Amino acid sequence: MKKEIFIVKSGGERELFNRDKIFNSLHKAGADTETAEKIVSHIDNEIKDGMSTHEIYSHAFYLLHKSQKPLALKYSLRRSLLGFGPSGFPFEKFIAEIWKQKGYTVETDKIVKGHCAEHEVDVIAWNENKLIMIEAKFHNQSGVKSDLKVALYVKARYEDLEGAMFNYGKMKKLSEGWLITNTKFTSSAIEYAQCQGLRLVGWNYPMKGNLQDLIEDSGLHPITCLTTLTVAEKKDLIERGLVSCNSLITDNKTLEEVGIKGEHLEQVIEEVKSLCQNSTN
Q: Is residue 143 within 8 Å of 9, Cβ to Cβ?
């Protein structure tokens, strides 16, 4: 009987190694059963007690990248979002692009007047029928969760905003208030939100319609998932307002402005097209 192996999560806590978690994450990224099983078996043979989840993920990514590069980029999605830091603005802009892809008009980082006070809203999205306001809570580390305190102040903010009228296309009231994070929520935050009707979206919550689902459904992927760009190049592009891979297909000019030219430019565009094509399959 194989000895039990404990791994260390990003928050420092230890948990029993579960090969099914790796298999399911690979499968959700699009890897077929045979490929996922080969990668998991490889890790199963090499894993040691005390290894970090980051080490395990990095090894799985390396193996998947060797055989199916576009799927590896999708597999890296969760950790790629962490690359939007240290500020939360790129994450806000990325969330706005998701709603734009849904057909909404969007604005980011706006001050709006509620019934009693002014509020800073990260993302505002509207169409003919709906007005949605979103608090985008970004964390630099995957082990950090949005807790009850965050849910409480966001709910209070939306209650004040629900008492006002806004001119977005036409005068309308707030239809929906969302709290979206790139990581997870504490159980108390989820329990409170369910009781109060606050819409929460995190990496693993809810089971359907979570952040990964929103990203996959939109066909957008963060620029930080690209392996052909250096960290410095990604940072430069993000500072220029480019946060999704899809925007690079038609924006060669900005790529050249940050020094990406010639063969390097071709490699970046090839990777972007491969990822975007894989997203629509």
A: yes
Number of CB atoms found within 10 A of residue 201's CB = 21
Amino acid type, 80: S
Three-state secondary-structure class, residue 250: coil
Tokens for 184, please give them. 């997870």
Give pTM, 2 decimals.
0.80
Question: What are the sequence ranges of the domains in the chain?
Answer: 6-68, 89-218, 221-280
Contact present, 17 and 6 (Cβ < 8 Å): yes
Per-residue model confidence as pLDDT tens digits over 154-187: 999 999 999 999 999 899 999 999 999 999 999 9
- CATH number for the region 221-280 comes to 1.10.150
- DSSP bridge pairs for 1: none
**Per-residue pLDDT reduced to its tens digit, 220-234:** 889 998 888 898 999
The domain 89-218 having CATH identifier 3.40.50.300: the answer here is no
The structure tokens listed for 84 are 């939007």
**Lookup: tokens for 231:** 């960290």
What's the CA gap between 27 and 102, in Å, rounded?
Answer: 26
